[in-house]
Specification:
Blueprint (H helix, E strand, L loop, with lengths): L40 E3 L5 E3 L8 E7 L4 H17 L4 E7 L6 H10 L6 E3 L4 H6 L3 E2 L1 E5 L5 E5 L5 E2 L2 E2 L7 H10 L14 E2 L14 H12 L17 H6 L1 H9 L23 H12 L27 E4 L4 E3 L11 E6 L6 E9 L6 E9 L3 H6 L10 E5 L2 E2 L2 E2 L4 E5 L4 E8 L6 E3 L2 E6 L6 E9 L4 E2 L6 E8 L4 E9 L4 E9 L5 E7 L7 E2 L1 E9 L4 E8 L15 E2 L10 E8 L11
Parallel strand pairs: 3-4, 4-5, 18-30, 20-24
Antiparallel strand pairs: 1-2, 3-7, 6-11, 7-8, 9-10, 12-23, 13-22, 14-21, 15-19, 15-20, 15-23, 16-17, 16-21, 24-34, 25-33, 26-32, 27-31, 27-34, 28-29, 28-32
Helix pairs in contact: 5-8, 7-8
Length: 597
């Protein structure tokens, strides 16, 4: 399975999109004076030696620095294969060089096979060759003359960038440079910005420091990073060991300093949340100080016990796991931009109502699963099919998965109800990758240890009736809902698509008092969070929640699939949605006192 591949249409990041944002653009300089790269010799995955001197009779050599764990690099491998194929008969040799300290030869062999890399992949031990080139990121491309002069340095194209993924590039920089070289022309743009991951160079840590990995940094990574940065999760590289932390220390410093990691998009001026990922000032200062001091390991006796995770799960080991009965084949490509939602039914066979304390949807193949929504309905398969359920914002919402933080985690004394004999409906949104793929996704449930005091419900405060005009960069859409009984608000999950710009929840109490509960000033479709309140908020009968969102349907939005067309409500990624999901409990059912069963 391609762990962090990018879909050909509609998918920003699995997170991932998350790690597209990790590559900062380099300073741009047009047409620098050509410089020469000294000869080097490296072995490829088959043990064959390659050197620049041996390629002196070719018309050009393309050297691209790649990395196993970098999602940007992996996203470009299909395009690089196509370029290699296009220019192979024009006497252009493509070479990939892996200079990452922790990418061993064995891992590089497996990675090349997994991504079907069609040209040689070379291992650069101790980043000697990366230093010769002055390469900093993956994927960074160099076009060399037969004599080793650097004719072009920079990105492959502009499809992937900081926080966005276009459906296709608008400028094919590497191809343009090659065409000019082969035509005997001077490369018109000899250096371009590069977005990607910093090369994880081999460094020699310092012996001592006031901040050490053992005493402070290991705990910071455990508490703030390892939930995602471990095998099988959305983080593209593990941060479980000292060696991991040292190798990626440069990348850590960059994303932490620029506040891109840990991912958290809520305006701190409004609301307090139990799942707030922001680093404390102490952790922030210590982490950066450790890197600046040379990454000292410290006394092993100071290490905390490694954090234990249930393999493959963020909520812990489920009490029961339900899986789609059959694999679904995702075609390599489709005529339209994406695949229509697929619904798969799974029978629970529960002989009584069950109360769910936590639930997590787990994609079988992250490369093609854009999102999952699992609904729980009473009734047979035939009942559900006859009633044409589920509605995208209808009842029965149990749990969801999308790039970001979306497991269901109910507070003590509250749980979601799965009716006796319920049927689960897996609503699957797939996006093709260019290669035929298989998926068989699951949902894991953890049951409440005792009957809950309150039933958790999900409401979609949605606006279906809107049309965002072509070119409008700040189109307003609103929705609202009024609670007809006393309730408590538990969490909020804003949802829009690629044109989503910002989202805000306000509460208006019966006495007219208005308060902002959550503001997401820069909505990110690639990282969708469920913002869980640190303490439930009481909503007296008659309280109204208002949702306010803006959309950017202009060409300034690089994620925009089509800035020349207006867009309406629709399920597909290239359409739009405006939903303010909320989880809440009623404090008393009709005719009952609070807490009465």
């Amino acid at each position: 399975m391609r762990r962090f591949a990018y879909a050909a249409a509609g998918l920003l990041v699995l997170p991932a999109l998350l790690w597209l944002s990790l590559g900062r653009a380099e300073e741009k300089s047009v047409n620098p004076a050509p410089r020469k790269v000294d000869n080097f010799t490296l072995k490829d995955t088959d043990g064959k030696e390659w050197s620049l001197d041996a390629l002196s009779k070719t018309k050009a050599v393309v050297v691209v620095f790649i990395g196993i764990e970098c999602p940007v690099s992996n996203a470009y491998l299909p395009a690089l294969n196509e370029l290699h194929k296009k220019y192979a008969d024009k006497d252009v040799q493509f070479l990939a060089v892996n200079s990452n300290a922790l990418d061993t030869p064995a891992k590089i062999v497996g990675h090349a096979k997994e991504y079907k890399v069609a040209f040689p992949v070379l291992k650069d031990t101790a980043n000697v060759v990366a230093d010769k080139f002055g390469a900093r990121r993956t994927p960074e491309a160099f076009v060399l003359s037969p004599a080793g002069a650097v004719l072009y340095q920079g990105r492959i194209d502009d499809q992937f960038g900081i926080g966005y993924k276009r459906e296709g590039p608008t400028r094919r920089d590497l191809a343009a440079a090659l065409d000019e070289v082969l035509a005997g022309k001077t490369v018109s743009t000899a250096k371009t910005d590069v977005a990607g991951c910093l090369i994880a160079r081999a460094i020699k840590p310092k012996e001592t420091g006031t901040v050490t990995y053992a005493k402070q940094v290991a705990r910071i990574l455990q508490n703030n990073c390892q939930e995602c940065h471990r095998p099988g999760q959305v983080g593209p590289m593990p941060l479980l060991t000292y060696d991991d932390a040292v190798a990626w220390s440069g990348m850590i410093k960059e994303v932490v300093t620029e506040k891109r990691m840990p991912p958290w998009y809520a305006d701190p001026a409004h609301g307090k949340f139990s799942n707030d990922r922001r680093l404390s000032k102490e952790d922030y200062d210590n982490l950066l100080a450790w890197i600046d001091q040379g990454c000292p390991k410290g006394d092993p006796a100071d290490l905390s016990k490694p954090k234990e995770f249930a393999e493959g799960w963020r909520i812990g080991k489920p009490d029961v796991v339900f899986t789609m009965e059959k694999e679904y084949t995702v075609p390599s490509k489709v005529e339209k931009k994406s695949i229509k939602y697929q619904n798969f039914l799974v029978q629970t066979n529960f002989d009584e109502d069950r109360w769910v304390q936590a639930a997590e949807c787990r994609p079988g193949n992250r490369a093609v699963v854009h999102h999952i929504i699992v609904y729980a309905f009473a009734g047979t398969f035939q009942d559900i099919e006859r009633e044409r359920r589920p509605d995208p914002i209808g009842t029965g919402f149990l749990a969801a998965y999308a790039p970001g933080d979306m497991p269901l985690i109910c507070p003590d004394g509250a749980a979601k109800k799965v009716p006796k004999g319920a049927t689960l409906v897996f609503q699957m949104h797939y996006t093709p990758t260019g290669t035929e793929e298989k998926d068989r996704s699951s949902v894991g449930l953890i049951f409440a240890k005792q009957p809950p005091k309150y039933e958790v419900k999900t409401r979609a405060i949605a606006q279906r009736k809107f049309e965002v005009p072509a070119g409008d960069d700040n189109y307003l859409v609103t929705s609202q809902a009024t609670f007809d009984r006393d309730a408590e608000l538990l969490s909020m999950l804003p949802h829009m698509h690629l044109r989503g710009k910002d989202f805000k929840y306000d509460v208006v109490f019966p006495d007219g008092k208005k308060e902002t509960l959550l503001s997401v000033p820069k909505y990110d479709f690639g990282w969708q969070s469920n913002y869980r309140l640190a303490s439930p908020l009481k909503l007296p009968k008659g309280t109204r929640i208002e949702c306010t969102a803006h959309f950017d349907n202009s060409a300034k939005n690089p994620n925009n699939p089509d800035p020349k067309s207006s867009v309406k409500w629709g399920e597909q990624t290239w359409e739009e949605m405006m939903i303010g999901f909320v989880d809440y409990v009623y404090l008393a059912e009709p005719g009952k006192k609070t807490g009465e069963k």
